[in-house]
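@channel sequence for tomorrow's demo:
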Amino acid sequence: MLQRRGLSAVLAALAAALIAAAVATSATAAPRAGQGSVRMNELQVIGTHNSYKRELAETEQAAYDQIIATPGDYDQFLAYSHAAIPNQFALQEVRGLELDLFGDPKGGLYAEPLVRRRLDLGPLPDPAWRQPGVKVLHIADLDYETTCVRFVSCLEQVRGWSDANPRHVPLLILLELKQSDRRAVEQGGVVAPPWNAAALDGLDAEIRSVFGEDDMITPDDVRRSALTLEQSVREHGWPTLRQSRGKVAFLLDNEPGSIREAYIAGRPSLEGRVIFTNSRPGQPDAAFVKRNEPREANTAQIQELVRQGYLVRTRSDLPVSTVRTGDTSLLDAALRSGAHVVSTDFPEVGMSARYGSDFVARLPEGGPARCNPVNARRPCRSDRLEPR
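structure tokens (generated this afternoon):
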């Protein structure tokens, strides 16, 4: 009996050790179906394209067409506008934004657009154009109407709404760092400063001037010790919804190239950085991937990227040809692809009516977020993602 009891004690101790080891492993292993909390990359949301954009007046649109020597171009591609950012969040249930950024360290660089000079309209009246700091607009000198001139002002609008609605799913903010249009420069337009190392450090600083570390999801929050950022998202996943509620994450829109290289210089896994770069699978910084076209073979490609753990953004429409043709194939494929952010210029019913269309890009179930159709696990319920 004593031998049996001794053996039983040893076996019990061994079983306890195995259970403890399994629990410790599960705390760091990639999540499996039916385990743990919903993660932020198990959601799908609608975002807006050029979220700050307002249309030029008709006379300015005509001057734009003359400068680029393409009659009707503005009406064909740029004739759309968005509500102010807080209204997009509150009334249109948008949870992703896209902001185009131009450097302006001294201030005033974009205050007198070429279009307005051609029409003798004088400088833009908003004094924010004269203040130093990154500016938000579509095309320098050519398409400049915006709901928030200064990048910091846009972020303050995001922060204000977020603070008032702290239970929201994470807000995904795509940033495109832009240069001047060659056609405008050749006719006397401004030359935007380059996005070099100093400018990129300044961009991070502007973001941090509005959002504290506890208000954001940064690469440092995702990366695990001794692993690259890519290994971390693929092996261990993204923060849970509980950990990411009420926060924002910044994503770089620019294709892999000189700006990305300058941003990751000396920081291959984005150590200490704010923004997740648009990278290529296999690279140490690869956590976010942009795929504009979700149709045909791209649908399966995006689905595979989602399954592997990358965060993905795609588009549901093209201004303004999609609404004029009534073609919903882009929207249908985007939703089916499982891309985490589906970007649109028409997030609300009625916005496309001016083109004789009822097109709108919304989640099939309604609401600000849904369980991702590709990788969401069993615990996920769309009606519980963002408490009202």
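heads up for whoever presents: The CA atoms of residues 113 and 141 lie 4 Å apart.
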